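We modelled the chain as a single entity of 960 amino acids. Its sequence is:
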Amino acid sequence: MPDRGGGPTGPRIRAGRPSRRARTLLMTLGVLAVLGMAFTMFAGFWTDWLWYRSVHYSSVFTTTLWTKIGLFFVFGLLMALAVGFNMWLAHRLRPPLSAMSMEQQSLDRYRMGIAPYKTWLLLAVTALVGLIAGASAAGQWRTWLLWVNGVPFHQKDPQFHLDVAFYAFDLPWYRFLLGFGFAAAILCLIAAALTHYLYGGLRVTSPGARATAAATGHLSVLLGIFVALKAVAYWLDRYGLAVKSSDFKATDNWTGLRYVDANAYLPAKTILFCIAVICALLFFATLWRRTWQLPVIGFGLMVLSAILIGGLYPAIVQKFQVQPNEQAKEAPYVQKNLKATREAYGIDDTKVTEYAGKSTTPDKTKLRDQVVDTASLRILDPNIVSPTFQQLQQIRNYYGFPTNLDVDRYPKDGKDQDTVIGLRELNLNGVPKNNWINDHFRYTHGYGVVAAKGTEADAEGRPVFTEKNLPSTGDLGSYKQQIYYGEKTTAYSIVGGPQKEVDYSDDQGEKTTSYTGRSGVNLDNPINRAAYAVAFNEPQILYSGAIGKGSRILYNRTPKDRVEAVAPWLTIDGDAYPAVVNHRIQWIVDAYTTTNGYPYASRTTLGDTTADSLTATNNSRAVVAQQNQVNYIRNSVKATVDAYTGDVRLYQWDAKDPVLKTWMKAFPGTVKPRADISADLMAHLRYPQDLFKVQRELLTRYHVTDAQTFLSGSEVWEVPDDPTNDSGSAVPPYYLSMKMPDQSAQAFSLTTTFTPNGRDNLSAFMAVDSDPRTDDYGKIRVLKLPTSTTVDGPKQVQSQFNSESAIAETISLLSRGHSKVEYGNLLTVPLDGGLLYAEPVYVRGGSLKYPLLRKVLVTYEGKTAFKDTLDEALNEVFGVQSSTTPPDTGTNPPNSSNPTVRQALQDAQKAIDAGKEALKQPQGPDWDAWAKAQKDLEAALKRAEEAQTKAEKTSGGTKG
């Protein structure tokens, strides 16, 4: 056998080279990996497209997508061409090579090494910088759309007399272009310099000239372009002074020109612009002079001028002209800032009224009667009673309520009634057995509204429900009760297919349903199923038999997420709230347009300004901001999300807002006119909390309109910390129906208080009319208390509550054992020149896992009461009973002529007394005895109701 070089037994195998089978396997795996990554990218794109099409906002997806693609390719191509051209030009301008030095000899092997791959290397470098530049440019799609669609504000800045639109829409785009130009110039300069060095155009250690004439001319032009761009930057910096932030006096985010800006920085920027233009021309002149001597001198002069004129001179002006007479120098610029800031945040029409802080009516009966006329004091705190709703109205473990309920108003007997409302949403943690079918096919939705009177509680401190049970019944009438979209609904569901859903359960058993809405994405298409299997990392979506004809997948189910997705140019208020509108449950979401480019208007950070004691414990209530730092904000859009279909509708609320008009040009047809808002929906709209919190924060400084007062800092206020919460966060604003001194009737309002900077006494009270059906909607009223007298602020009032021995003793009694006392919202109401405070007190503990209203604290002008009911507390504070209240205002049951009813009511009163006695045991509340008393009470009231109904029927039959 001939020798094949592999030894006596076979052919020799070349070491390190895989076999054909291994190469085929590796190639197959590589192709599969590429296909897998490609399909993963396709799945993300395809599912996004399907979702936007399902909510009928496909134009948002396509406009955004094509804008990003356009910016990516245009700017990526520009950068690639710029860098590639300069590398090619540097290579073309290379000198004839001769290995005359060690430096050139060492570079020669690199030149020889890359010679076969020069074209590929050029393409690789240009592609890389193009991809990076394109990706960066694609992220500027909002800036581009604002620039190309911008509409004028018809307001001019006081310094340059340009329309505000220039600063809000144009200047950000020009700055992006400038930044892109700088990046391109620097990259081209680096690429050209390296190429020239590699091919001998630049020399570092070789004898003779350091650069060839061609290299000198090429690099000088690039340097000239860089310096020319710097000249443009100096010119734009002049306008940038109008939107420049700095720390100044009472605000950390002062914006606009000050004396030193107008008289030092502004002329300095103009001079530096001229110097930079001359310097750029000197660099361009090297094309003829072939020397860098003059350009280098010019560049050095520009740097020196930037230090002296742009840095040292303004410091001298500030030190020797401004500081010796600061108030006089800064006053005109502060006045401009005051005016612009108040306009930008919509607080320019704020009505500030001097308020005595002390009652002027000696007639206590008249004063007591005024309470009823002045405010509907809401003793049901929506931020406390969610566990109570949960315990009394959850009904099934797979339902739940949000941590914070909402306040709305519904008509009752022809009059609006403040109502605490929550939805019985799906809670997957309570599903009997968690598995894929149960979590995503069977348990898919919540069911029904639960609502209670805001101003009342029953004899045992429970909410007085106006809508309750399962299915929900009550004052709200008939409506579609299934809740497929809600604040707690974050998991996806697959509905409408062969698998039936649990609708709700009652005493007759489990009811099933199948979703009939058109929401979600159809899964009939196998491509869709595969895409969602990849997108949700759930392969069962691809092959599960539970998915069939008609199956639809629902996701992006929280109201804020849906509004943010269909309008990515809006900032979303942290508190979406539900309302029954036109026989459907609608989530109402307030949305804002913002900008960071309003000249002279001071900036605010939305995340910080809108934080309070509620957001500290519930992150879901935080604002969803596209731009966290802003200096202009408008509640320009009201949005609704249908709880059953998920339909999103955007309504134009502020028809004058130029930012909204600009976005409506960019996304035509996405925002409906205000006229499309139905009367039923209008009745439930309200002034948004996050806007109010931003405005109140600005008003701590900008309630003054005089520059001298602003500069002195003597009138600075602050938002007090929540006295009922240990988080150390700001007190949240509260909704309630009340009447300000200049109003003739109660109006649904949003209120807050202010204290002086660094002190706890009250300095002002603020309210805004929150009912859009009134002409005063959005009108901000501030009652300013005198500085000559001291009126207790919220923290002092809470301390007064806690320090009175009788109250402290009762609180101690209520909190014995495993009980816990929880303080509700401390409401403040202006009353006859004074301030009335009211606060509900809840007790949670023992066998009860939910809070019940036990007491009400009321104080007015130093007199405090701590009673079982609001009426009792008010009567004690004023020393009289309201003439408009029936004599029997306590918890005693009414009398009746029917002996059976009368006996039942007497038994009910005994049960009430027994319940109270059980709570007052020396060793702590006897919760078992209390629970027995509640059962006796319910039984007695049921006997009374049955006897009364029977008597009424008998009476009716006799009359008939």
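As a brief sanity check on the tokenised model: Residues 74-211 form one domain. The longest helix spans residues 20-54.
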